[in-house]
Amino acid sequence: MATQRTSFTKLQRDRAKKAKAAAKRERRLERSAEARENAASEDDSEPTEEGEGPISAAELLREIEVTHQRFEAKLMTYEEFEEKKAELLSRLPID
User: Fold this and answer.
1) What are phi and psi of 3, to 5 degrees?
2) What tens digit of pLDDT does each residue of 9-55 get?
3) In 10 A of CB 88, how many CB atoms?
4) What's the whole-number mean pLDDT along residues 70-87?
5) CB 3.0 to 4.6 Å from 47: which of 52, 61, 67, 75, for a disulfide?
6) Residue 43, CB-side half-sphere exposure with 13 Å CA sphere
7) pTM of this prediction?
8) Sign of torsion, CA 36 52 82 63?
9) Burial classification of residue 25, based on how many CB atoms lie within 10 Å of its CB (0-12 exposed, 13-18 middle, 19 or more buried)
10) Distance (Å, rounded) from C-alpha 92 to C-alpha 66?
11) DSSP string of 39-65?
């Protein structure tokens, strides 16, 4: 006996769940990026803008992680992702 194929409504529900999860992930990434920007603007003792001032290895790795998450959430193009990742990795201190 053959197995029954999934119904169209079940497929619609699954797609809606995935879309809702993607939207939630995107909002969470945007909120964390805004919080990080606010924290960086409050801490003027150590500039963290691109290519400026010293930055800790932990902070660089966190920025690389955020860059990966933004790329996976389709918030940046592949070219932007590669450029940002290369810039961050070049600033990583090697002991």
Assistant:
1) -80, 150
2) 888 999 999 999 988 888 888 888 887 777 766 654 444 445 555 67
3) 19
4) 89
5) 52
6) 12
7) 0.42
8) negative
9) middle
10) 15
11) HHHH-TTS--STT-S---HHHHHHHHH
Which one-letter amino acid corresponds to residue 60?
Answer: L
Burial environment of residue 60 by CB neighbours within 10 A (0 to 12, 13 to 18, 19 or more)? middle
Chain-centre distance of CA 3, in angstroms? 40
Helices (H), 2-94: 8-42, 57-72, 78-90
Which residue do the tokens 């150590």 mark? 46
Q: Which two tokens stand for residue 69?
A: 């998450």
Task: Write down the residue that tokens 């990583």 correspond to.
Answer: 92
Residue with tokens 């070219």: 79
Output the pLDDT for position 17. 92
